[in-house]
């Protein structure tokens, strides 16, 4: 099977990538050739709406793609019993509420404009369930379920909604709070013998954002080198 090159380019399409200043989000921005940065707190409904308004004004165009990549993780890796309420709330506020608000706004705008792509970011830790990640994994598991339901709710709109769930990726977020020994255990646990790179995730997101990804909908795609299958 061959994929026509014409199905992959994203020329003249406008994408919002949250969390695009570093790590996986930055690689996605580069892959999609995004050019404009607009600062916004994704946990604030008014700022999310303003983000979409400013993007439409800046490009004088409708929005075609949302990639919701903004997220945080507690670098202390506490057990559930030792997780502070304020840390739990912050994790859900940024990861889950932020994704909800952006997806809600995108669903409204993309429906109005006749189609598009919504791509959320989860984690393969939802599959591995490692101790020390309770708040983070719970916040991302909620995103996976929300994305699957959203795909069904958008029936007839020509909008797809999918979730990409990276494994261990060499980013500031991943390295924070980990010892060299811990990092090496992640490397040793990967059949490909390395950590992922942000570009490994960006390519999958680019495919889902393109016409070639049209038939992929309501899916959680685990991109982790075989760490979790």
UniProtKB/TrEMBL annotation:
Annotated keywords: Oxidoreductase
InterPro entries linked to this entry: NAD(P)-bd_dom_sf (IPR036291), SDR_fam (IPR002347)
Keyword Oxidoreductase: yes
Keyword presence, Oxidoreductase: yes
GO molecular function: oxidoreductase activity, acting on CH-OH group of donors
Record-stated family: Belongs to the short-chain dehydrogenases/reductases (SDR) family.
Designated name of the protein: Uncharacterized protein
Protein species of origin: Gossypium armourianum
